[in-house]
Specification:
heterodimer; A: about 475 residues; two-stranded antiparallel ribbon; 6 strands; about 70% helix; about 5% strand; B: about 325 residues; mainly alpha; two-stranded antiparallel sheet; 15 helices
Chain lengths: ~475, ~325
């Protein structure tokens, strides 16, 4: 019954659960709302009804996704006070301020226009509707900006100092644009786009594979592939610079992610472990499969660059759960590269004239690969957040506040009960969401408006 | 320097009061609609109730998010202490808001709507009652030492806060009922007029009880109420609320569509202003003063530029969505 007596651990579990559940939804909201802006703009410019019907279809998915994102975001706004009161007092001057900015500039904008975007199709002129969609997309993206600013300040705090238990800001710009901020803002935003593109393309591929409205879904498939061709390589480049930032500003976290124990001597490179089993007790890897000089190359972009090993840090400054960090990171990177490969494969087929109405259906494996890849973006996002947050431990604010000092003093039972409730409620939400999305997709764009079914019926009936 | 700080802290007290007020009246009516849906047996009518708030509930709820963030930034200690002390009611409120929010969208997709109907009504009621208990706890005062909450995690539960919770539930139901009077016609409208009247009387009863008990349990408020010349300003607000109450009952009997909602809003604004001015200049009397609990002047200023100056813009586009979704439900569909 160790767990039931440890308020701090329970609060950490609860925060991890609520944050990891919440992040699933804004990812698609951000990407899909931008996709809708593209569709609606194309519709207004070209007058092609196919774009209108696409917008109507994808916005149904967005609405279901959006509402879960809204409600699961609420607990996060309050948990800093309920479960992490000492953190709220110490960091409030900056962190609370930024959360307030997020509410005022981003969340309210999104919420103020989402009603019109979803239910206002017949109530406002086309231009006003596009404007509402743009505001929702802008609000969603701005929201990710402020949240990443707040989080990156916890990773690499800057622009102020602690006086009498409170962080006082000296320079706002330095605090907002702390070393980690810009990189992580863009990295997360691209992750949202990439995940959404693979959801859009994955769903489109599923319809094409089943021979339903092939021509219709080739539109969305091609738009997503084109965008992925830009986003996937960019994201890999950004991942690389994020890695170097971590080694510069959070060296213990970097060493933990890579299972790197001993600082390399000058004149020698640090090896990079492809696979290993880091062991905190032994302060070494139980086994590893390494590439010579690899880590120096990754972390410093030179063959013999110095990379500080984890053993150089006192044990109480080393992150916990090393294998989790090590493999979460590798899984995220592998998914990033797989997305690039899949995109290149598809571009090659496209170049070969395979992405047309009759021939696309013959590319079973390609289409199946897209369908299977649909959830991978979410997996990569979760892995990335595990690396980011577990890797920051034992600190809540790097170098300033330890997690153990930051938890509210509460009876463990009260947190255990709220945690159990969150698990139960979130399971219900996830299952209900998946059931309803399945229904939505099975019904397809044909349901509802008869004209759509009529228009696209004969395109898709190809023998597979 | 301290004068500037005091001015900025007071400004944020006012702004936060305004944001919380906007939350209470906007989400108040849609939570009230949720509570009323529990009394509804007919599924079509329940659908009408949900449609009446379908386009606007999300933005209404967002005032709470904005309030949370702005309170966190402007008065971190108050944010920390209050939420820590209110762990149970705040958690309950969050579960309530989660359930009712998803129910509003999920209901349309479900084959068996019974569960989502219950999630909508029950979640709304849970959130409303939890907010009432939280308010009752804040009025009775929290035990704070050195900027840390030191009381029991059950201190929100008392006979007094129960009366407050019933009053808040009745008040939100009144807002929801009069909102529905505005959004419906005929039989439905008459029905919600009746519900609104019951809710109004319960609210009046609870509000009177709370007003009588508060000075007995909170010395600070007693001191503030019964000192000259404050008593003269402070007496105006309950009088306004009573006047609005009389007008509300008249308009409900007279079969007016819009007036009952307007008068309910006036009851809420004057009661709310009465509460806010009773606490000022303390945030959580008697431990936390406004100036002491506030962030640095620089943060307050920065936040005023980033949030305070955006408030008019937020109000404009929030008003715009009410214009888009105006009219009764029958006219809409």
């Amino acid at each position: 019954m160790y767990l039931l007596n440890d308020t701090e651990l329970l609060s950490r579990l609860q925060f991890a659960l609520t944050a990891m559940f919440h992040i699933l939804w804004p990812v698609l909201t951000i990407g899909l709302s931008l996709f809708l802006v593209v569709l609606e703009t194309l519709w207004l410019k070209t007058g092609e009804p196919v774009y209108y019907h696409h917008a109507r279809f994808w916005s149904k998915l967005l609405l279901l996704n959006f509402v879960v994102g809204v409600v699961s975001g609420l607990p996060l706004e309050f948990e800093f006070g309920t479960n992490w009161a000492p953190f709220a007092v110490l960091g409030g001057d900056f962190f609370g301020n930024i959360l307030g900015f997020e509410g005022a500039m981003a969340f309210m904008l999104e919420a103020g226009f989402v009603g019109i975007m979803m239910l206002g199709w017949n109530r406002v002129p086309k231009g006003a509707h596009l404007f509402a969609t743009c505001m929702v997309a802008l609000g969603a993206s701005l929201s990710s900006f402020w949240i990443m600013v707040a989080n990156s300040w916890m990773q690499t705090p800057a622009g102020g100092h602690v006086v009498a238990g409170q962080f006082v800001i000296d320079d706002y710009l330095q605090a907002i644009f702390n070393p980690d901020a810009l990189n992580s803002v863009v990295h997360m935003w691209l992750a949202c786009l990439e995940t959404s593109l693979f959801v859009i393309a994955g769903i489109s591929a599923w319809y094409i594979l089943r021979g339903r409205m092939t021509g219709f879904f080739l539109h969305s498939f091609k738009i997503a592939v084109m965008a992925a061709a830009v986003v996937a390589p960019l994201q890999i480049g950004l991942g690389d610079s994020s890695g170097r930032l971590v080694f510069n500003h959070q060296p213990a976290k970097g060493a933990a992610i890579e299972g790197h124990w001993k600082t390399n001597r000058s004149g020698e490179g640090a090896d990079w472990s492809l696979l290993a089993w880091p062991d905190r007790d032994a302060q070494a890897n139980d086994w590893s499969l390494s590439l010579p000089d690899g880590l120096s190359l990754l972390a410093t972009h030179s063959l013999h660059g110095k990379v500080k090993g984890l053993s150089a840090f006192p044990r109480d400054e080393q992150p916990p759960a090393l294998p989790l960090l090590f493999y979460s990171f590798r899984l995220m990177v592998a998914i990033g590269f797989w997305f690039l490969v899949l995109t290149l494969w598809t571009l090659w087929r496209w170049h070969g004239g395979q992405l047309n109405t009759p021939s696309v259906a013959h590319n079973h494996w390609l289409l199946r690969a897209w369908v299977v890849s649909l959830p991978l973006g979410y997996l990569a996002v979760e892995c990335g957040w595990i690396v980011r947050e577990v890797g920051r431990q034992p600190w809540l604010i790097t170098g300033i506040l330890r997690t153990t000092e930051a938890a509210s003093i509460l009876p463990p039972l009260s947190v255990a009960i709220s945690l159990t409730m969150y698990i139960a409620v979130y399971c219900v939400l996830l299952v209900a969401f998946l059931v309803f999305v399945r229904r939505l997709l099975r019904a397809g764009p044909e349901s509802g408006e008869a004209s759509i079914a009529e228009r696209y019926r004969f395109e898709g009936r190809q023998p597979v | 320097m301290t004068e500037i700080h005091h001015f900025l802290a007071s400004l944020w007290y006012l702004l936060l009061g305004g944001i919380l007020m906007l939350y209470v009246i906007t989400d108040g009516f849609d939570l009230g609609v949720g509570v009323l849906s529990l009394l509804e047996r007919d599924d079509y009518r329940r659908g009408v109730m949900m449609a009446a708030i379908g386009g606007v509930w999300d933005a209404n709820e967002t005032w709470l998010v904005l309030f949370g963030g702005a309170l966190f930034g402007a008065f971190p200690v108050v944010y920390a202490v209050t939420l820590h002390a209110l762990y149970i009611p705040i958690s309950a409120m969050l579960f309530g808001l989660i359930l009712r929010g998803v129910a509003l969208e999920f209901r349309d997709h479900a084959y068996n709507r019974m569960w989502w109907n219950f999630a909508f009504g029950g979640g709304s009621l849970l959130a409303v009652v939890a907010q009432g208990y939280a308010l009752g706890c804040v009025i009775s005062g929290l035990q704070v030492v050195n900027g840390k909450f030191t009381g029991s995690i059950w201190s929100w539960l008392s006979p007094f806060s129960t009366v407050v919770a019933i009053g808040v539930a009745a008040g939100y139901t009144l807002l929801g009922g009069t909102y529905l009077v505005m959004k419906t016609e005929g039989v439905l409208q008459a029905r919600y007029c009746r519900h609104s009247r019951y809710a109004a009387w319960i609210m009046l009863f609870c509000a009177s009880a709370v007003t009588l008990i508060t000075p007995l349990i909170n010395d600070y408020i007693a001191l503030r109420w019964f000192s000259f010349p404050d008593i003269i300003y402070l007496i105006v607000l309950p009088c306004l609320a009573l006047f609005a109450f009389v007008m509300l009952l008249r308009s409900l009997h007279g079969g007016k569509a819009h007036a009952p909602f307007i008068w309910s809003l006036m009851i809420f604004t004057s009661s709310f202003a009465g509460l806010a001015s009773s606490l000022y200049p303390y945030l959580l009397p008697p431990s936390l003063t406004l100036d002491g609990a506030a962030s640095s002047s620089a943060t307050l200023m920065f936040m005023f530029v980033g949030i305070g100056m955006l408030l008019p813009v937020m109000l404009v586009y929030n008003a715009y969505q009410y214009v888009v979704f105006r009219g009764t439900i029958k006219q809409q569909e």
